[in-house]
Amino acid sequence: MQQAFDWAIEQADSVWLETDMRAHYNPTRMGVIQQATQDLIAKLNHTCPNCGYPGFAITEHQRGLPCELCGQPTASIRSIVYGCQHCGFQQTVEFPDGLRFADPTYCEYCNP
Ligand SMILES: [Zn+2]
Ligand SMILES: [Zn+2]
């Protein structure tokens, strides 16, 4: 666990160094870096439930959320797969937006 913590600090440090070098000159770039930093923090907050290593992150988006009207799979996200870069453990989160059905607008069958 100590090893994982050291790794997290290392990653965070390199991001802050980059931020210092370029952020002052370009507001747009600063926004991008801020976003990247937030992504990294969100990533580090996700530790692998199997080995405890940080960086348990989204590896795949699975489409096919069923249409509200006809139940056919649509192109909307149905589930998200998280994967551990350390041990290869994977976890699927169904209906990540809390929606179990897609709007018929996105259905090829109801709304071609
Ligand atoms: Zn439909
Ligand atoms: Zn793991």
Question: Quick one: biggest sheet?
Answer: 3 strands, antiparallel
Number of domains: 2
How many strand segments?
Answer: 3
Shape: flat
Structural class: alpha+beta
- Which strands sit side by side, in order, in the main sheet? 1-2-3
- Determine Rg (CA atoms, Å): 19 Å
Query: How far is it from the N-terminal to the C-terminal residue, by CA?
Result: 52 Å
Helix content: 25-40%
Mean pLDDT across residues: 80
How would you sum up this structure in a few lines?
The protein is an alpha+beta fold and 112 residues long.
Explain how this protein is built.
The structure is a single chain. This protein has 112 residues and is of the alpha+beta class. The protein has 2 domains: 1-45, no CATH class; 48-112, no CATH class. It is built from 2 helices and 3 strands; from the N terminus they run ααβββ. The protein has a 3-stranded antiparallel β-sheet, with no helix packed on it. β2 and β3 form a beta hairpin. α1 (2-22) packs antiparallel against α2. It starts with a helix and ends in an 18-residue tail after the last strand. Mean pLDDT is 80; it is low at 15-22.
